[in-house]
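Record 1 of the preview.
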Amino acid sequence: MGDSYNNKVLLLAFHMSKALSVRYLANSLLKNGFEPYIVFLKSNVYDVQHLTDTEIELLKDFIKKEDFLYVGVSILTSFILSDVDKVVDMIKSDFNLPIVIGGAFPTIMPEHCAAKGDVVMCGESEKTIVSFSKAIQSGSDWKDLPGLCYFDKNGKYCQNDLAPLVEDLDEIAYPVIDYKNMYLIENNALKQGDPQMDTFFYEISCSRGCPFSCSFCCSVNIRRMYQGKGKYLRFRSVDSVIKELKEAVQKNPDIKEIRFWDEVFSNKDGWVEKFAQKYKKEIGLPFHIWGHPLMVKEDVIRLLADAGLQRIVVGIQSGSPNVRNNIFNRPESNDQIIKASKIISSYKIPEVYYDLMICHPLETLKEIKETFDLCLQLEPPFNLEIHGLSFLPGSDILNIAVEKGIYSKKELEDMFYVSYEEHIRQVYDVRYYEIEHKKEIWADLIFLTQFNSIRKSVINLSRNPYKNEKKIHSLKVKMENKIKNTSKQDSLSSRFKKFLVTVFKNTGKRL
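->
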């Protein structure tokens, strides 16, 4: 298996042109004498387009042209398992290459994924992948490396303990940008180049870990896996972040926005002040962040607004204290949410989004009404991101659903492996679950609360919603059309929509 002259590693990313984790691993390999190749298989995780037979053949032909040590397969979510299976089956059938599987989903479901490939690499793996690559290259044993899971030759499942966390994130090389060995397979064609060079925004992460323990997210269980292995919530230095952004903008001058992909953007004393000062002076582009009501502080928002904060998405999830506190394990009160909305509004952030999960089996009719009431108390202007609840692998909400008799463990496990289309419906279709019709009416009313110009009409309709159902639905359709016509929900901020359509109409860039 070993070949001391071979230093090539193939990494596959599915339905995501940014694929930060893959880019981190590639740079770690690059800094340690290996030559990584990244193939992006489709560019958009929200676009329900499966890999075609032609695209699988293109990947096969690509692999034939190079002599790789092994193939690394990144699985962020169970959404993409059907395409992963196609690719893994092809590699097993046509090549004698070790298959290494990593990512968030394998970290949560390692035994399931170990049955697909030869080995699973769990957790943060920038150091492990280098050690593994050296072992494969030299033909030495890799089976005791931290974080690896596999079935031995006797069919016994083996799972090694995770490596300690890297507490100083500046030790880790940031994601590769516009690296020569990058390829995109999409639209039945293979194209060389970094696909993010064809976009108008850049995604970056300043931290790892999350300070909260929401029951619908797998992050809490990943943190438990790392208990006793170092500090889970860590931050890069401001200088490291600015250095990466400078390289990104230098390599892609078309970048118009920066999107921070942290689970919750930092409000750390000292860090925010330095970031705001340096970012405004040295980068100066509008940027997006994810926020949390308990981390919205006036001094922080003031600094970020001055530095160019264009969009903030704040998770509220429910207006019901019971759902939020006892089911979603979110400790904030309604008063704290309302206070946060007033702070954000006072600094006139151009795009404010509040994220809601509604119309799921763990919510009563009374509780969805409470979400409507809370939305009426949020300080305008704001937009709503409304979606359903997906029962994700590794999340605490699974046990809650079983304890309440909503689903059995088997029914929940079956949900993990439904089709890509079904997963998208679970997340984005609030009518995915069989819910009583009255909830649907209140969901429409909740949607309408984001339009301040019709708020009085919405309040009047809500006084007798079932009698006014047709009027409510008609008003919702009208406002949805208004959103579409103004491109309010385009993937790029509406502030730049007209500019980009006019100036870059014929460049072939993707929004």
